[in-house]
Amino acid sequence: MNHVFAQSQVARFMLIAIGAIAIVAAMRAISPILNPVFIAVLFVVLFDVPRSWLIKRGMSQGGALAVTIVGAILLTLLFLIIMGRTFLNLTASLPEYQQQLQIQLAKLGAMLQQYGVKEGTFRQLAASNETNPLSLVTYVLSGVLSLLSSGVLILVYIVFLLIEVSGFPAKLNQAFNPSEPAHQYISTVSANLRSFLVAQTQVSLVTGVGVTVALWVLGIPFALLWGFVAFLMNFIPYIGSILAAVPAVIVAFIQYGPSMTVLWVILAFLAVNIIVNYTIYPRVMSQGVDLSMFVVLAAMVFWGWVLGPIGLILSVPITAVIKISLDSYPGSRWLAVMLGSGPKAEPQPEGTSPAIVKPG
User: Do residues 38 and 314 touch, judged by C-beta distance below 8 A?
Assistant: First the structure.
């Protein structure tokens, strides 16, 4: 009897594994279709905040939805127009930037000669496409451009997803009785997902706005573009803020050379991230998803392979969705625990010794 039970468990595991592999293979094949949908979801959870706010203030659901959709369309189109002009200006400036880069690298090499750096070392690096700093800026721009080129499609998804979100509670109540476990599970997962995605998107938006304002004050060209890059990269924990700063620092160096302005740009990124991470983030992310550093790294590699460069940005939100779904079901909660960074120490009352957590 035990042998039959073991065989059924193995067969079940194999079926789940085969299904997961098939889903991942399908996602990789249709990643150009999925990426705009995933990006649209991030913006929908952000646009859904004013819709909920308007309903709480007494506006009808239809009126709140209409106002939100019109606002989303106007803001998205305005953003696309501004970013389109920014890309045209930046593309036209790239040849000039390449020449200016050689001049600034020569100045940097002359400054560092006293420390044993040979003259012309940095110019040799810039001569190769693999080591040219401007090639990194171009790579980042190509990724953002591929995203913006789907802007109209993303806007269509946003409109229809907003309509679906507004009618989701009614559909759920019609499909399941509120007392049924399926209704409670879906409600719990939906509420937790919305809480996390709204908070994470708001934190990323604050980071992007802060970077944009700081770079604009410092006179860095195309500050709005680098702020948008910071917004996207903020979805990547630990290294996202570093990756977001690199293109802006390179452009600042090309524009101003080895000067204090470049140092101020670096300090601006540090200041924005410190303020966000230590003041805004703890308040907004009260229901944040705890993921271990290894899981974050593995998720970046995996989803980057499945979805391409956009997968790096979406890796943590997607993994968070999986973790929340696992954590909301008792039978799979242990998997959610394994994805986390470990148990958190709870504050103990004064005069008591900390409790010992035993395995199992």
Answer: yes
Separation between Cα atoms, residue 135 and residue 247, nearest integer Å? 10
**How much is the CA Rg of the chain, to the nearest whole Å?**
24
pTM of the model: 0.71
Of the chain, the end-to-end C-alpha distance in Å amounts to: 27
CB 276 within 8 A of CB 203: yes
Residue 202 to residue 68: CA distance in whole angstroms: 17
pLDDT in tens, 259-305: 888 899 999 999 988 888 777 766 665 545 567 778 878 888 888 88
Do residues 195 and 201 touch, judged by C-beta distance below 8 A? Answer: no
- Residue pLDDT, tens place only, 126-147: 555 555 666 767 766 776 777 7
